[in-house]
Design a protein that fits this description.
homotetramer; 342 residues; alpha/beta; Dihydrodipicolinate Reductase, domain 2; seven-stranded mixed β-sheet; six-stranded parallel β-sheet; 11 helices; 22% strand; AGPR_type-1 (chains A, B, C, D); NAD binding (chains A, B, C, D)
């Protein structure tokens, strides 16, 4: 089976990571690569690590260019996917790495992103309860945000054991911000420095995490989420804590059991043996999520630490995983749990 | 006034930072510099940045070597300070950068550090309520831990406004771990990676933060504390959150007011104007703490973010500040709020 | 075809990288994994990124453990390979990532490494003139050093155009030093800092580069080589300069031509289009060498810049490439030219 | 003595470093701070580490604003200094951190920078032969480029011992490129990566190094210069090599002697004891240059390694040092040789 794909937004970090992964996928033929202001450039100028595509040029992002592919990946700023997807019609599977179709609530969308809601698509986190079945054979997929991926997977197995409020502080590499030319993203500013942003519940991934955990819990979960920028290109390490319900008091065994059951058969989520804690470089470039839990017995509080590569499983890897499900290919095809370390 | 000082543990990071700061202090004459396994070495071998001391050699850490100085700084592993301090008697002011005399509860000491409690000394965080007066003229000072410094200052002004449990996730540079030769502290492992440690309330700074906040609140405060190692040499960025009491509901004004009042006259704690958030490189090498607060109105939750240089205000800067208070010198002598950035 | 392999030294960086690459190789079954002081540990403790091998334990490095594999990779400190190889006899292909069998001159060996020369094996840099043919079907391979790999490939095409002395300054990540627990390799020391070492021709890779370039030139080439440690885990960027002979004066065209010809059919050496310069992150994790040349016309001096991942093409990737040649597999099997960036 | 100063270009890295140093200078009162597009902003927005100036606002860069100060520092893009300096007339000492007045040859200026040469000013590297005397009492100073500073100091003592061509490869942090919003300067691109630029003699600092070394030698010296960007904010480590003349053959003693003599009385240039090699973090934030030399005896080649902080002694520190000389203050006033490490 040869699947012909196109990538819209191939000059950015998510687009580059998609192509890196797809080049290793046995069933893929890489078709059109498009960009906006960089259209006409050699891809190599923007993705110097993709040598097998060194001769390719970026084309304009138009429906004409993108048509005629089996799968079209959209790695565009939010607000740009809906129209393109409609124009492409049902001829192609469309996998949107952007935010446009993640939120199910139109009110949430309008509050957090502004403008009209484009509707929601099957949500590309198959490891969440009852989610994989919606992705098999899907023609549209909304790839989750990077923080929601790691945060939701870190807490979903525990929702029955915890109270209704969770606190998440997630340390992230800078590639999550894309290639935006902002002073605070310059190497000189980033190296040797840590900084928080979107503090006080202001980050747009907050409603997405809330949506996922509330769905998993079957009741509203409140999410305190603070992202912290650290001096690394890739990787998110999320520290997630929540009060345990009285019934779980001091019951670290129950907690471990819940996580082991949840992820025993998941190919990409790895619940570590006791005594091992995740690090972001262990998942770098891979589709793996590494995770460990413990209970702070003085406080009867659950603490989960989880690591993910924001560009891989956090974005492009999830997109490929969902493509596999949509196409009926093996879910792990072209993907790996092996990180590039040290 | 010329004050003659000695540093025990001059080959390590805390010792080096003490010397860096003391070299800029107008009233200090640097006397004996001691070490353990490195005794006999040129200081330059261990502290290549201290050129004015390039000709100095490290001596053995003995009471004979340390006697005869006005102030003796101890930058030793925990458990080594009490005996030295006793031998030095009252002839010298002793400022202990280690943990031995920080905890007031002997039970806490035994639980967290093991062995017998050496007793507590005046606690060197003058910005905490009623603390400065205990340091003026003191002959013994226990310099706070780096995480407790930033965490306690971040939350102390709010203790009357919040519920009894706080969650702190603090991202730290690697110098906080000292020059320990452990594989996970190698540059190849650290760069490009974030990792949590001491998770689940297992870090020894937890009881110290608890002690400080409970004292400030006049009631027991429970502390969920998770430290995260990030790829930078220096700096801690602490994200501290707590549920606001009903009375403070949506009252961001009260919160800002509390912080402004608390630190209006503090020379080193800088509560930032609205819209500005702290970064660790802005305080690098300085004795400043930068801080910002907000209220997550969806959750009625306080979020404070604070930055400190773990080696400066987090250790050696605090030691110099306390020395100034002990000696009756201006508190800011030899210290600065100017960071080295970018 | 299934090839059963063993790795001696599987706890280190070179061993980990070998396993990372071999896990992606279609024809490989991973057998014994051995270590010295870490024998008995879970591999996961030392290689947390190798999840598919998470259940494996490290065994002792003995001939009994290593016997019975088709290929044995040795990733050991120098001086430990010869005896093991002899004991293994001809039953296994032995691929030595260490230095023991790289130098052809016994005098050079004794001067640079001390002790008796173990003899030389086919040298695993197939891109050098007349080298590939010696590797096809070989039973023993000496994998080149990382600096010699990039330096030799950078200058070999130009040996007929340049005078007899070359100057190489190579900036390297810290993983080249292995997991050695030395203070100067701690993250706190490495981050934010650059430093030279082995200055003045003192680095052991100097005679290896000299050997390669002299062989390519058919005359003695003198090599001034200075390695510089930079704050990154992986990657070498070599800046190589040499005086052009009079006949090549101002002849940038001839120079480009020589490089294009030399590497036109090489799958892993990529001579970049004009205007593009190599960066180490573009080759991270890949088996590619990226290269660009120019002529400083004011000085009639050739300047070549080349990038390689020291652990991949610089060590473990070359080992796999040579294994492929030794076994008669496609040379590129299990290897990629796609880097992990950003 | 109180000297009132102004800084034009106070929002950039050089401007920020000037202010950091001047805040520690005992004789300075900080007057107008100007910018271009950032005029009107709080300085804190651009220089969050300069807390004592947290209330200051940036003004427009006009002669009216800059007039009435004793010293005006210009930290502007090249081409902007000459006109401002002329308008300021002789009322102020003008210290230009830009390139406009560094080159003595109008031809060189036009070739490397384009446009008309603004003329040359006393060159602010007092450690070069016969240079200090031109700076004492000067009303105009051209602050050297960062690479020329470290390269010239590294080689000047040896000019009588070496042949006419030198090869310099200098590894630099990214702050040397300023706050330019270019994709290749983003943290995501810079971290974990090394890259060369201005290769083949194309960097504008080449003629400046050539000018300095030729002046020191009294004969033309040819300079092969390659700058390499490394993942750190600050610091330059220059590796400088040159063939020794026959007369100096194997004469490492003569070489050390030349360096010891040259810098014995220099307060900021530190020739290290044998066995010690410079690192950039040892000079971070300081006005020191650390240096070591050796002779590669196989090649009879001198190798010098020198470290400097590009923003401090490489730019702003040199500017303050020259201001001191110009005003007749002690040359070291407000400056330090103590780096911020680790």
């Amino acid at each position: 089976m040869t699947v012909r794909i196109a990538v819209a937004g191939a000059s950015g970090y998510a687009g580059g990571e998609l192509l890196r992964l797809l080049l290793a996928h046995p069933d893929i033929e890489i078709g059109a690569l498009t960009a906006n202001s960089s259209a006409g450039d050699l891809l190599l100028k923007h993705q110097p690590h993709l040598l097998p595509l060194a001769d390719r040029r970026l084309q304009d992002t138009t429906v004409e260019t993108l048509k005629g592919h089996d799968v079209v990946f959209l790695a565009l700023p939010h607000g740009h996917s809906a129209e393109l997807a409609e124009q492409l019609g049902d001829s192609a599977i469309v996998i949107d790495c952007g935010a446009d179709h993640r939120l199910t609530s139109a009110d949430d969308w309008t509050r957090w992103y502004g403008g009209e809601h484009a509707g929601s698509w099957p949500y590309g986190l198959p490891e969440l309860p009852n989610q994989r079945e919606k992705l098999v054979g899907a023609r549209r997929v909304a790839v989750p945000g990077c923080y929601p991926t790691v945060s939701s997977l870190a807490l979903a197995p525990a929702v029955d054991l915890i109270e209704d409020e969770v606190v998440i502080v997630a340390v992230s590499g800078t590639s999550g911000a894309g290639k935006s030319l902002k002073p605070n993203l310059l190497g000189s500013e980033v190296m040797g420095s840590a900084s928080a942003y979107g503090v006080g519940g202001a980050h747009r991934h907050t409603p997405e995490i809330t949506q996922n955990l509330s769905a998993a819990a079957g009741r509203p979960i409140k999410v305190s989420f603070t992202p912290v920028l650290a001096p690394m290109s890739r990787g998110i390490l999320a520290t997630c804590t929540a009060q345990l319900k009285t019934a779980a008091l001091n019951d670290a065994v129950n907690v471990r059991d819940a996580y082991e059951k949840a992820y025993a058969n998941e190919p990409f989520v790895h619940f570590l043996p006791e005594g091992f804690w995740p690090t972001t470089n262990a998942v770098l470039g891979s589709n793996a999520v590494q995770m460990q839990v413990t209970v702070d017995e003085d406080l009867n509080r659950l603490v989960v630490v989880a690591a993910v590569d924001n560009l891989a499983k956090g974005t492009a890897g999830a997109a490929v995983q969902c493509m596999n499900l949509a196409l009926g290919l093996p879910e792990t095809s072209g993907l790996s749990t092996v990180g590039v370390a040290p």
